[in-house]
Automatic annotation (TrEMBL):
InterPro entries: Rho-like_N, Rho_N_sf. Pfam families: Rho_N (PF07498). It comes from the Bacteria. Residues 6-39 form the Rho termination factor-like N-terminal domain. One of its GO terms (biological process) is DNA-templated transcription termination. This is Rho termination factor-like N-terminal domain-containing protein.
Length: 47
C-alpha cells in the first residue's frame, strides 16, 4: 500500500495505471487530482 505522499509523486499516467489495476470505476474521465483522491480512498478501504 502506498501513502498519499507516495501517490502525489506519481504522474497522471502512473495514477491511471494504478486505478486500472484496482478497478476504480470512472477512472477514464478523472483528472489527476480526482485519481489521487480515488486511489487514496481505495487504499483506505483496503487496509
Amino acid at each position: 500500500m502506498r501513502t498519499s505522499a507516495d501517490l502525489a509523486g506519481l504522474g497522471e499516467k502512473e495514477l491511471y495505471a494504478r486505478a486500472t489495476d484496482l478497478g476504480i470505476p470512472g477512472r477514464s474521465t478523472m483528472k489527476r487530482d480526482e485519481l489521487l483522491k480515488a486511489l487514496t480512498a481505495a487504499d483506505r478501504t483496503a487496509a
